[in-house]
Amino acid sequence: MLVLLKQDVKGTGKAGDIVKVSDGYARNMLLPKGLAVEATEGNIRAAEKQKERIAQKAADDKAAAQELVETLKEKSVTIKAKAGDGGRLFGAITSKDISDAAKEQLGLEIDKKKIELDAPIKSLGTYTATLKLYQEIKGELKVFVVEE
To answer: How many CB atoms sit inside 10 A of residue 106's CB?
Structure first.
């Protein structure tokens, strides 16, 4: 029996694949659990349209990430923090602080999970935060930490 997989099935295939499986496996396992549907022409066309939508969304996301990288090239954020002797901060500046500062100062929504720091910032100075915006697209944002 030919089935169209709706989800990844270990040992059988990935979501969107059309695979030939035994009738019993399809009727007793894949179809009742909603892991697959019978591979009719209508289902195959619907799956192809969904793949096209997913590919288009991925292309749009990639273009938006590239545009954000270009926007951030000449931008920076300034974060004020309390510091003690020698410029050591009371606490640390994290990716959430940088995300909040970018939203407030630049008007850009940057998810804190996409901001990579080598280590939390614990002293005054200038730092560069790496932004992993898309699979192979990375950008940088200058972060100035000044005394409050």
So the answer is: 15
The beta-carbon contacts of 8-11 under 8 Å, at least 24 apart in sequence, are: 9/35, 9/36
Contact 143, 77 (CB under 8 A): yes
- Could you report the per-residue pLDDT of 97-144, keeping only the tens digit for each? 999 999 999 888 888 999 998 888 999 999 999 999 888 888 898 999
Q: How many CB atoms lie within 10 A of CB 89?
A: 19
Region of 36 on the Ramachandran plot (φ > 0 left; ψ -120 to 50 alpha; else beta): beta
Please give the Cα distance from 79 to 86 (Å, whole number). 18
- The secondary structure of 33-45, three-state, reads CCCEEECCHHHHH
Parallel, antiparallel, or unpaired for β 138-147 and 76-81?
A: parallel
Residue 81's Cα: distance from chain center in Å? 29
